[in-house]
């Protein structure tokens, strides 16, 4: 039998080259699952008291680092804890609903509801860090998806988990593999933290490079870390005029004496039009077709990044064209937070069109497109637009609301300077995100080599 047919990984540390083959056995042979439990109605047991018990929900995993859960948003009373499943610091919990199949290690103690399983009685068979890596591998996640396929609700039962299969080798080899992968996780986490700091820095920079009119009811961002970062970049700034609503707190030196920014309505620089609703058979071919996801998923829009396309005639395209400098707005959304989100089209070589849930702002006034894109993403302008949205189950903004929105504009030269500064920061953010993606791909490839036939059952 060839090596490829044996239960042996392609990559193996030298000290284990002569070890026996790995095992592949059902989950139930190695691990016991205990399901969480929820006191009902849960609202009666939630508390803000410091003596409360951590109430661990799947939503709390958004702040997990390297699959370790450090904090929760809610607590339950001691009486509620008696009706739930207690878990200790260091235990592993596996999600059986929502983002099902993901496993996390607890850095806190608390209680879990029935959306979690807690893993127990595996210590004789598995090194914990190794098991955490294995359970979150594509090999295991693909098994959960296959075994749960066809179900109406996207969750996994204990039977599905128990029937999945686990790779198993000696504890010393498990520890060696876990140590290797954990080191790579630490590198990824460090780069991820740097990415978040860059994003925070951009957010703070925007708060100070754009005026924040007090009549809109928003206070300046209070964040010492961001304030210090801005001063390092804008050493030539002079905040002496920042007491005016129409002047930013920080200003590049060459614009200190340019006076206040000028009030304008969006309708003075943009001409608005609703997007087209084509027949179903027209989609999937023809010219690129800007939709809501293109607005939400990009810092700016260029032709090659547009997801969809539509087959329309030349006359329709002329009336509904999107060209360099035009601004696209999300006209309708299920959330008030997203409605009115804007993005700019920055492709000078290609013309696109736009969909029915989008409003196009055709460039008719004098502005720097990249600057206006950044301005429309500020908290003040976003809230100014979304607060006027109508609807209950779905929120909508119209052309009139957009046209009447007040903005403040400096000279074109100052717009260009600010846009250039933010674009440089965007380039750093994009490069950092790319670095993280490459590290994640490297880890994925490494795991495929360190585990036998990771893509197969």
From TrEMBL:
InterPro entries named among the record's database cross-references: Restrct_endonuc_typeI_TRD, Restrct_endonuc_typeI_TRD_sf, Type-I_RS_S_subunit
Membrane-spanning parts: none
Keywords associated with the record: DNA-binding, Restriction system
CDD domains with a match to the protein in the record: RMtype1_S_EcoKI_StySPI-TRD2-CR2_like (cd17517), RMtype1_S_Hpy180ORF7835P_TRD2-CR2_like (cd17283)
Residue ranges occupied by any Type I restriction modification DNA specificity domain in the UniProt entry: 20-199, 260-440
Molecular function terms from GO: DNA binding
Signal peptide: none
GO BP terms: DNA restriction-modification system
Similarity comment: family membership: Belongs to the type-I restriction system S methylase family.
Protein name according to UniProt: Type I restriction modification DNA specificity domain-containing protein
Native species: Mongoliitalea lutea
């Amino acid at each position: 039998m060839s090596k490829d047919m044996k239960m042996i990984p392609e990559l193996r540390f030298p000290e284990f080259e002569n070890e026996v083959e790995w095992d592949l056995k059902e989950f139930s042979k190695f691990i016991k699952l205990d399901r969480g439990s929820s006191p009902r109605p849960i609202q009666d047991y939630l508390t803000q008291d410091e003596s409360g018990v951590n109430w661990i929900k799947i939503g709390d995993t958004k702040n997990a680092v390297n699959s370790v859960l450090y904090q929760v948003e809610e607590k339950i009373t001691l009486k509620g804890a008696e009706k739930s499943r207690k878990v200790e610091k260091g235990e592993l919990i596996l999600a059986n609903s929502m983002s099902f199949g993901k496993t996390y290690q607890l850095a806190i103690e608390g209680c879990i509801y029935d959306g979690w399983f807690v893993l127990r009685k595996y210590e004789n068979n598995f090194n914990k860090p190794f098991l955490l890596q294995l359970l979150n591998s594509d090999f295991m996640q693909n098994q959960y998806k296959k075994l749960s396929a066809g179900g109406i609700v996207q969750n996994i039962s204990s039977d599905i988990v128990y029937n999945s299969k686990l790779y198993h080798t000696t504890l010393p080899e498990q520890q060696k593999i876990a140590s290797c992968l954990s080191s790579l996780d630490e590198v990824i986490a460090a780069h991820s933290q740097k990415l978040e700091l860059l994003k925070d820095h951009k957010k703070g920079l925007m708060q100070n490079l754009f005026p924040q009119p007090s009549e809109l009811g928003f206070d300046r961002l209070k964040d010492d870390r961001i304030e210090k970062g801005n001063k390092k970049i804008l050493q030539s700034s002079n905040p002496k005029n920042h007491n005016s609503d129409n002047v930013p707190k920080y200003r590049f030196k060459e614009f200190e004496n340019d006076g206040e920014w000028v009030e304008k309505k969006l309708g003075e620089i943009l001409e608005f039009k609703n997007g087209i609703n084509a027949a179903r058979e027209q989609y999937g071919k023809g010219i690129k077709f800007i939709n809501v996801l293109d607005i939400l998923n990009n810092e700016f829009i260029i032709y090659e990044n547009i997801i969809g396309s539509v087959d329309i005639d030349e006359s329709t395209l002329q009336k509904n064209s999107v060209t360099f400098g035009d601004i696209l707005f999300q006209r309708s959304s299920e959330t008030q937070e997203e409605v009115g989100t804007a993005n700019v089209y920055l492709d000078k070589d290609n013309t696109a069109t736009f969909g029915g849930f989008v409003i196009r702002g055709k460039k008719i006034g004098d502005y720097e497109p990249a600057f206006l894109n950044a301005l429309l993403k500020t908290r003040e302008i976003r809230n100014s637009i979304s607060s006027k949205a109508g609807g209950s189950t779905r929120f909508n903004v119209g052309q009139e609301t957009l046209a009447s929105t007040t903005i403040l504009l400096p000279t074109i030269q100052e717009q260009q300077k600010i846009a250039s500064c933010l674009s440089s920061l965007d380039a750093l953010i994009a490069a950092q995100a790319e670095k993280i993606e490459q590290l994640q791909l490297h880890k994925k490839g490494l795991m495929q080599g360190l585990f036998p036939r990771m893509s197969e059952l």
